[in-house]
Amino acid sequence: MKLLFIHGAGGAGEEWIYQTEYFKDSVAISLPGHYQGEPASSIEDYADWLRDYIRYQQHQDVILVGHSMGGAIALLYELRYPGQTKGLILIGTGARLRVLPAFLAQLEVMANDEDTWRRYVEDSYRLVAPQIRQELVRLRLRVGPRVMLNDLLCCDKFDVMNEVHNIKLPTLALCGSEDEMTPVKYTRYLAERIRGARQAIVQRAGHFVFIEKAKEVNQIIEEFLGSLDP
Fold first, then answer.
1. Domain count of the chain?
2. Structural domain that includes position 185
3. Interval 179-218: pLDDT, tens
4. How would DSSP label each residue in 82-135?
5. CA 111, 117, 122: angle at the middle one, nearest 5?
6. Residue (of 60, 75, 98) closest to 172 by Cα position
7. Beta strand 62-67 with 27-29: parallel, antiparallel or unpaired?
8. How far apart, in Å, are the Cα atoms of 72 and each of 117, 188, 204, 216, 229?
9. CATH number of the CATH domain containing 180
């Protein structure tokens, strides 16, 4: 099985360093516009791009692992192209990802205020270990606030709450107990609506649970993979 990691809004594939080091032969992609090219204008367009990518790379037996916006892409991918993957791992995400208008307005300000943007990014990774925090900050600063704003506008339009019950794939829904961006109730909703889905809540972790509690998250993923048919 091929694990394919999909980052969240304003992120990049390098955020998955703890997972790609642990799960050999896995791939962490950087979506268009993160850093090269132009970002997509909807979750649907990101899902279509992902389909083309998987076909071009000729990946087989793919398990999509998506964080936040990446989880939305994974959900929509399965709803649009059912049966093309072997499973879903949904981390800190939801069937709907509405964004507060006030936060979108703040990002508009950040797009023209580098210091404010930097402070926001540094705060986002406050629970991450110091030895990796600065590199992650550097990566996100490179992607920039305009791409982040674009991605969150895509998220704000995303809503598959009335469709997720159609997903038949083995699914793991996981989040941090202190996640404020995509609260625990989002993960519970997914676990309740997708038949047979597993749920995992990692204690004392926030939105970037897969970085903050990498060892625990990797173990949960490994146990999930072990439950799948070969």
1. 1
2. 2-96+159-226
3. 999 999 999 999 999 999 999 999 999 999 999 999 999 9
4. TTSSSEEEEES--SB----HHHHHHHHHHTT-HHHHHHHHHHHTTTS-HHHHHH
5. 155
6. 75
7. unpaired
8. 24, 15, 24, 23, 25
9. 3.40.50.1820
